[in-house]
């Protein structure tokens, strides 16, 4: 990457807005996640009144609460949980704890088990590719955000070498993640995924 090319456009930051209060930020995350205060309290394993106090601006929630309610992080975490559950189900099918899925001529048809294992493996391939793409996208975004302050007029126009190296590495990982999604889409569905610059 050349330092004399135009500065990249400002990417959307996941960092909190300094003008936004903790209570407003928390209520916004609940809205984005479609969660009531009660549901969020259950999700976080805290008392409902604690969540009510935080949403009313009484007391300050720890940063871990904001991270746990971030839609991006919870989506990725849910995909990881689905992968783990699928792996456990595959193991149960393979060692005979579960038999016959009802896809064949009768419920105990061994072909049903093989079909279900194949379906779960395909699903996990897709979930892993999505997780990788999302993580690569956010790594790239953060690398550009780190680079932006160095461009003129606010910086000296010369980003440090480690910032440039991180952008290049993040770009390479993002392109590799995109290629993996395209490969899986073609393998599973017989068509290429449309190229895009974001996930």
Q: Beta-strand level of the residues, as a percent range?
A: under 5%
Radius of gyration: 23 Å
The rounded distance between the terminal residues' Cα atoms is 23 Å
Number of domains: 2
Number of helices: 7
Average pLDDT score: 80
Question: Percent helix among the residues?
Answer: 55-70%
The helix/strand class is mainly alpha
User: Which stretches are poorly predicted, pLDDT < 50 over at least 5 residues?
Assistant: 1-18
Number of extended strands = 0
Principal-axes geometry comes out as flat
Major sheet details: none
Order of helices and strands: HHHHHHH
Any overview of this molecule?
63% of the residues lie in helices and 0% in strands. The two termini are 23 Å apart. By secondary structure, the protein is mostly helical. The model is unreliable at 1-18 (pLDDT under 50). The chain has helices at residues 22-33, 37-44, 48-55, 63-69, 71-94, 110-147, 161-189.
Quickly list its features.
single chain; 199 residues; mainly alpha; 434 Repressor (Amino-terminal Domain); 2 domains; 7 helices; flat
Helix and strand layout, with pairings?
Blueprint lengths: L21 H12 L3 H8 L3 H8 L7 H7 L1 H24 L15 H38 L13 H29 L10
Helix pairs in contact: 2-3, 5-6, 6-7
């Amino acid at each position: 990457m050349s330092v004399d090319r135009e500065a990249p456009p400002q990417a959307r930051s996941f960092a909190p807005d300094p003008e936004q209060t903790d209570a407003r930020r928390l209520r916004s995350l609940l809205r984005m996640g479609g969660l009531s205060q009660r549901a969020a309290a259950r999700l976080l394993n805290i008392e409902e009144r604690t969540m009510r106090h935080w949403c009313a601006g009484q007391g300050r929630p720890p940063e871990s609460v904001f991270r746990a309610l971030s839609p991006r992080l919870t989506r990725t975490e849910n995909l990881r949980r689905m992968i783990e559950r699928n792996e456990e189900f595959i193991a149960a099918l393979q060692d005979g704890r579960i038999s016959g899925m009802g896809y064949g001529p009768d419920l105990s048809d061994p072909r049903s088990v093989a079909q279900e294992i194949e379906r779960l493996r395909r699903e996990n391939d897709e979930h892993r590719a999505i997780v990788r793409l999302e993580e690569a996208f956010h790594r790239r975004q953060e690398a550009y955000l780190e680079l932006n302050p160095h461009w003129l007029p606010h910086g000296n126009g010369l980003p440090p070498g480690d910032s440039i190296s991180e952008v290049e590495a993040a770009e390479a990982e993002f392109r590799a993640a995109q290629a993996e999604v395209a490969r899986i889409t073609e393998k599973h569905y017989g068509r290429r995924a449309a190229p895009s610059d974001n996930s």
